[in-house]
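FIELD: query
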Amino acid sequence: MIAGRWFITPHAVRRYQQRVERVPYHVALARLIDWSQDASKVRDLDDERELWRGPKPQRRRLVVGRSRAGAPQLLTVWRY
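FIELD: result
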């Protein structure tokens, strides 16, 4: 089961904790799920990845992978 728009990888949660806010894993996961609801697509990075922008005010960059099978995956979080 996926909550939010994407499957959120453990790597993305750890990057959130490193780059955005030092909070417990479950809190970071919940915030990323919330972000996925309000994020907007910016552009395609390549054939399998897209760049999305998180909600205001932080507007962090989110890299989403689109594999051929399965749900889209939030791969990582960029600071800018």
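FIELD: remark
The longest helix spans residues 25-38.
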